[in-house]
Write a structure and sequence with these properties.
The protein is α+β, with helices and mostly antiparallel strands. The protein has a domain of about 70 residues: Copper binding periplasmic protein CusF (OB fold (Dihydrolipoamide Acetyltransferase, E2P), Beta Barrel). About 25% of the residues lie in helices and about 25% in strands. The protein contains three helices and five strands. Strands 3-2-1-4-5 form a five-stranded antiparallel sheet, with no helix packed on it. It is flat and about 110 Å long. The termini are far apart.
Length: about 170
């Protein structure tokens, strides 16, 4: 009986190890693709365009919040002084139309070909424009008198006479 159990355990062990080995095998590599003919001259711009699109998709949009240090309308560039550093970026004339030196802005930009290109420039809401909360006046009356604590409840009084049983008609 011991030999039969040992044989069954050995067979199960072999199956367990072999199933793990089979699961780890990689499928056979596909045969190499035949060489493609050289690209036609008309296809070259399309290939470059696809590569540029892939780069544009991978480019992360960054953001800087700060004060406009310089605006160069001739070169279509703007410099924003943020908390950490100054960021110089190129921008469309439409984005630069309302921006002046000293404005607080939030600029979103991407890095393309090692140059910062502005995607949007929005003026930040100035803190001075927000109405300040009025401070309480010194001669104002103090708040109303605080409420008094509730009085403890009085114990219930016992009934004067016991209830009479109901009469049958």
């Amino acid at each position: 009986m011991k030999r039969v159990i040992a044989l069954i355990v050995a067979i199960l062990f072999v199956f367990a190890v072999s199933s793990v080995a089979i699961a780890q095998e990689k499928p056979a590599a596909k045969p190499a693709e035949p060489a493609k003919p050289a690209a036609k001259p008309a296809d070259a711009p399309k290939a470059e365009k696809k590569a540029d699109d892939k780069k544009a998709e991978k480019a992360k949009v960054k953001q800087v919040t700060g004060e406009v240090a310089a605006v160069d309308a001739a070169a279509n560039s703007i410099t924003v002084k943020g908390k950490k550093a100054e960021v110089k970026m190129s921008a469309d004339a439409k984005l630069l139309a309302d921006v002046k030196v000293g404005d607080k802005v939030v600029a979103k930009y991407t890095v393309q070909d090692e140059k910062n290109v502005a995607k949007s420039i929005k003026k930040a809401a100035a803190k001075a424009d927000k109405p300040k909360a009025e401070k309480p006046k010194a001669d104002a009356k103090p708040a109303a008198k605080p409420a008094e604590p509730a009085k403890p409840a009085e114990p219930a009084k016992p009934a004067a006479k016991p209830a009479e049983p109901a009469k049958k008609p």
